[in-house]
Amino acid sequence: MSPAIAVTGASGRIGGRIARRLSAAGLTPRLLGRDPKRLPLIEGSALAPPAAYGDGEAMRRACDGASTLFLVSAREAPERVSDHRTAVDSAVAAGVERIVYVSFLGAAPDATFTFARDHWHTEEHIRASGARHTFLRDSFYLSSLAQMAGADGVIRGPAGSGRVSAVAHDDIADAAVAVLLSDEHDGRTHDLTGPAALTLAEAAAELSRFAGREIVYRPETRDEAYASRAGYGAPSWELAGWVTSYEAVATGELSAVSDAVPRLTGRPATSFGDFLRGAPEAYAHLLP
């Protein structure tokens, strides 16, 4: 298998981890991004020409000569699916034979979490492209679970008593590299989750243990959730994404616990407690 792997999102928390791991494995990952100045300096890597997902010609140039594209989803935006389609089509036109796409747990056309619908539409387009493909459907990030608590020590949202199987960035990266370095995952979808699904009340209790102060979860109704976030001045589509992320927890759509991380990496998935133990910066805003 050709080692020419183009990695998008290399300036972010997933793509950067992937690029470093591929370089450590002796490969020369090609780093894609809109602004080369934001891309990390990783020994053994190569920089592709600047490219935004929605710029078809730039994406074609950036992917030229690569056999595999590791595709991290673009930031949430109304045009995200359209940009993904352009990126996929351009990569295939450039000769990319395989796409490994970071999707989302429970991606479906009618998913409660509105942003998860974008992932489903992107998956469908990749399937139709004719490229070999693998989908990595990750759950919420453990770091995001910690950030749900405000500085006042309260997690607010319409999640009810639902559970979420949040996963660590490092676990996603290790699983993704195992897929990228193998030819045995074509046509497969791997759900990447933590080792357990927590209620937000349980997450708050764990945060309390590490922060040394009481962190609580206060359920909201849908109307209360929109009202408590109205002051951020976010557009309606973004507010809907924020609120429905909690509602997807309430419906149980994010409660599945998969064995994919240990199966792909050969080690247990990271628990919320172990994550907090190794990442005190994740709850620094909660410290007394």
Automatic annotation (TrEMBL):
Q: Specify the superkingdom.
A: Bacteria
**What InterPro entries does the record point to?**
Ergot_Alk_Oxidoreductase, NAD(P)-bd_dom, NAD(P)-bd_dom_sf
Q: Which CDD domains match?
A: TMR_SDR_a
Residue intervals of the NAD(P)-binding domain: 9-181
Q: Which organism is it from?
A: Streptomyces amakusaensis
Q: What is its EC number?
A: 1.6.5.2
**Gene3D superfamilies xref list:** NAD(P)-binding Rossmann-like Domain (3.40.50.720), UDP-galactose 4-epimerase, domain 1 (3.90.25.10)
Q: Which UniProt keywords apply?
A: Oxidoreductase
Q: What class of enzyme is it?
A: oxidoreductase
Which molecular function GO terms apply here?
NAD(P)H dehydrogenase (quinone) activity
> Per its record, how is this protein called by name?
SDR family oxidoreductase
